[in-house]
Amino acid sequence: xxxxxxxxxxxxxxxxxxxxxxxxxxxxxxxxxxxxxxxxxxxxxxxxxxxxxxxxxxxxxxxxxxxxxxxxxxxxxxxxxxxxxxxxxxxxxxxxxxxxxxxxxxxxxxxxxxxxxxxxxxxxxxxxxxxxxxxxxxxxxxxxxxxxxxxxxxxxxxxxxxxxxxxxxxxxxxxxxxxxxxxxxxxxxxxxxxxxxxxxxxxxxxxxxxxxxxxxxxxxxxxxxxxxxxxxxxxxxxxxxxxxxxxxx
Amino acid sequence: xxxxxxxxxxxxxxxxxxxxxxxxxxxxxxxxxxxxxxxxxxxxxxxxxxxxxxxxxxxxxxxxxxxxxxxxxxxxxxxxxxxxxxxxxxxxxxxxxxxxxxxxxxxxxxxxxxxxxxxxxxxxxxxxxxxx
Lengths: 249, 132
Fold this sequence. Notes:
Number of helices of chain B: 4
Low-confidence stretches of chain A: 245-249
Number of helices of chain A: 8
Radius of gyration of chain B: 28 Å
Low-confidence stretches of chain B: 120-132
Largest sheet of chain A: 7 strands, mixed
CATH superfamily of chain A: Spore Coat Polysaccharide Biosynthesis Protein SpsA, Chain A
Largest interface: A-B, 29 and 27 residues
CATH topology of chain A: Spore Coat Polysaccharide Biosynthesis Protein SpsA, Chain A
Order of helices and strands of chain B: HHHH
Strand content of chain B: under 5%
Structural class of chain B: mainly alpha
CATH class of chain A: Alpha Beta
Oligomer: heterodimer
Distance between the termini of chain A: 34 Å
Mean pLDDT of chain A: 82
Strand content of chain A: 5-15%
Radius of gyration of chain A: 17 Å
């Protein structure tokens, strides 16, 4: 019998949110690895309107799954994860992709950085010393531009702002559960701007990432060009958006 | 007797709007545009010299061009309103989907934790999966 312990102990409750969309080939192995490497964390998978067996595989592993009735996009899936974390009273939320790209063993760098820097949001960054991830062409320019602008916004050095590996503290969870942009690139770029504008401390930690197990990342120059344009639009909207007065959570 | 056709048009518009609101298939706030249109047509029908006067003063050579311009402007504004409404609805359904997903998760968790046999009774999706 699984009984969730009540939160009356001093140990903080920490949740791993795994957004997954049709990841039946990799999700099982991904979850088993997370459980083995990070046994003290709770896990919830957000199945973003998956039409394959993703949700039932996750259930059969005894992991809670938020089975969204239709596809909301990565931003929507992440926000659902934050909403769930607030309802269940978690103190820390780790967002980790369900495609096997993120190595759970690297999470320790994020945890260390968070306590060392007193950060509300820690981004697992590919270009910060560790790993050997390379991009070229328009995609590289886009990421460069995003990193320059957002670094200034957060008054720190951010080298990989589109990374989906993020660790959030209580203040960030409260903010993101209410205000998490669901548009394309909003989930990373605009979310960072929102965090900075609300006085949250955003920092990064260097991690190495793996090649994706399922699916292939796109290297087409046209797609990279579109990515650049959409990144600029997302950035322009995020930076000029009026900052909404946030009611204290 | 060139009053008759526009007046019939206005009457028909008002009547259709009224019927649609009465049947609750149309919200009042979407009928504002049609009310404005009807009112405009009524004004121009009652004072026929008004249309050429307004048109020439706004720089239109033919009054009919002014009418076309005004009509297309109104459709433009209406589609902007619709886009805004659609975005708002999108946000609402998104929130509903999230909340529904979370509620179902919590329900499954509740059943899991209270079911003494530890069987996977929470799976109501009809998908065959193996009990852990």
